[in-house]
Amino acid sequence: MSLEAFHQSEPLTLGVELELQLVNTHDYDLAPYAEDMLRLMAKQPLPGSVVPEMTNSMIEISTGICHSGSEVLGQLTQIRDALVKSADKLNIAVVGGGTHPFQQWHERRIYDKPRFQELSQLYGYLSKQFTIFGQHVHIGCPSADEALLMLHRMSRYIPHFIALSASSPFVQAQDTAFDSARLNSVFAFPLSGRAPMVLTWKDFETYFGKMTHTGVVKSMKDFYWDIRPKPEFGTIEIRVFDTPLTIERAAALSAFVQSLGAWFLAEQPFTPSEDDYLVYTYNRFQACRFGMEAVYVDPATGNHMPLRDHILHTFDHIARHAGAHGASGALHMLHSEASAGQNDARWLRERQREEQLLAEVSRQAAERFRGGPG
Length: 374
Hints:
Blueprint: E1 14-24, H1 34-41, E2 49-52, E3 58-62, H2 69-90, E4 92-95, H3 114-123, H4 125-129, E5 134-140, H5 144-154, H6 158-165, E6 170-171, E7 174-175, H7 182-187, E8 192-193, H8 201-214, E9 224-225, E10 227-230, E11 235-242, H9 247-267, H10 280-290, E12 295-297, E13 304-306, H11 307-317, H12 319-324, H13 328-339, H14 344-355, H15 358-369
């Protein structure tokens, strides 16, 4: 099976996908209402799409092609408002966050779609444990070779993306001590982790050919990499973000990705190499475990520093490119919260300390997603 040709896209355009929790309004546990939600949402003309996900207590929304973080926010707002309206009719709620705080994985049911059933047969209980919720950000690339270059440059900033989006501290009613426990579930899959270090599409086609020859891989969908090329869209897809608790944060994170991409294309700041990945898994773990309090090892110098400091330095460094793409407000919001060591994982823990009930934490998170003060 040959690799699909890399389609042309407008550089630095954005597309955002959000996997979302469906919960009942009795005890705020996950509820199997995906099919009902999809039926109601299909009646409304909206940008992007709303589709099922692995288990029937989750759905995925996506924007169309956007040119800025503010356009992402505009589209997500339309979809969010329609979701909330539909959920109210069903007496359920929609919630962000990378994990549901207290759901039991064995109670989940695989959504009745051939690919999901096939994955369930292959991966067994891991499929139900994949009831986790992430944000994916696509960014348009000028060419196939430049897509691979951007992919490996973005890899240096995987810890930044994880810490800024982390929203999964609780699993099965336990505080995991991780800010992003969600990614531990992703890492269980055999084709997860990082993409191979190739910088030309010709070499990537060779790699893909070898992988399909083994029979392990049939398409790009079989790779659960942190970042993967999406040749049918002409993009790379960054997959490490937890779903934020608000669409405003989701849009701001996409604006950060676009600003980084603009810096890469305009200044070609560094050429990635295999040695960048010597500290990749360590940096990734640190960000998942400690969030804003993580240590970051600079792959170029080997220097150790607080990840928060490197995030703030990065924001300052790309400010000019953010301004050129209307992203200054989004980066200012992220900068302020990073300065304070704040992310959604901390918000969830603060609510839990105050309320002592994870169901109440989920209720407040549902209010927050719909735009309330939760």
